[in-house]
Design brief:
By secondary structure, the protein is mainly alpha-helical. The protein contains 5 helices and 3 strands.
Length: 96
């Protein structure tokens, strides 16, 4: 995967609404209505976010109004979880 592709995927994940959608899909596929309820988004906003996530390959549509994470989506969320868990952005303490 090229650097620009990685940046594009991270950009797609980089809004609170899209991240909520991805997290909602972690354990099981969800219906459009369930995602609308979880995210509290209007229909047009949710649809726009779903298109972006689908175009980047992070989610896929299983059937009429049912969405799930792709393997790429699962992998990126797992990496994000590892980053948060390890707090890589914090400076490490120096031993005295």
């Amino acid at each position: 995967m090229a650097f620009d592709d990685i940046v594009s995927l991270l950009g797609a994940m980089g809004t609170p609404s899209r991240l909520r959608i991805l997290i909602a899909l972690l354990d099981t596929p969800q219906t459009y209505q369930a995602l609308k309820f979880v995210t509290k988004l209007k229909k047009s906003a949710l649809s726009s976010h779903l298109v972006i996530l689908r175009d980047r390959g992070l989610i896929q549509k299983l059937g009429h109004g049912i969405y799930e994470l792709t393997e790429i989506g699962q992998s990126y969320l797992w990496l994000l979880g590892q980053f948060i868990e390890r707090r890589w952005w914090l400076p490490t303490r120096q031993s005295a």
